[in-house]
Amino acid sequence: MFRRGTLIVALVAALALVLGASPAVAQPEQHNPADVNFLSVGTAVSKSVVGVGETFEIKLTLSNSANRPIFVGSMDVHDELLAGIRIKAVNPPSLEEPFHIPIDNSMSYTMRQTIPAKGTLLVVFTCEGTKTGTASGNVDICVTYADCKYIPVSVNVK
Fold first, then answer.
1. What span, in angstroms and rounded, lies between the C-alpha atoms of 147 and 158?
2. What pLDDT digit, counting tens, does each position of 4-62 carry?
3. What are the pLDDT digits (tens) for 86-125?
4. 82 vs 106: CA distance, rounded Å
5. C-alpha angle 131/135/139, rounded to 5°?
6. DSSP letters of 15-39?
């Protein structure tokens, strides 16, 4: 017979397997507001000047300085940036169709990505210039709905 504690552990492991999680792999706490403090972000735009209709990339390298994994729930691209560019694709891809957040004036991309302890995650937005001028605004990397790192991005569209 199982002892009570052993039975509970066995049931939790069985439930994790049924739900698709591996009990041997530690899952990060998915909505820890303090995790935003462990993120640093490197930004690179593949071209400083693009033409209308020209494709370019915005590369964000997310670095986790914590000794544990960090969960990134979404990335939100502000309307000011989108006024001059169109996002054609994102890699890793958004898990849902991007949607507009009126209160934040941004398009939200559902990422649900885990950055390993002391690791990095590269996110690449493939974009196209749509309107002449300087397109600039923030890309928010959010660990919860309200706890985000705000990254300024700018590109000149000629």
1. 35
2. 433 333 333 333 333 344 333 344 456 688 899 999 999 999 998 999 999 999 999 99
3. 999 999 999 999 999 999 999 999 999 999 999 999 999 9
4. 8
5. 130
6. HHHHTT--TTSPPPPTT-GGGGGGE
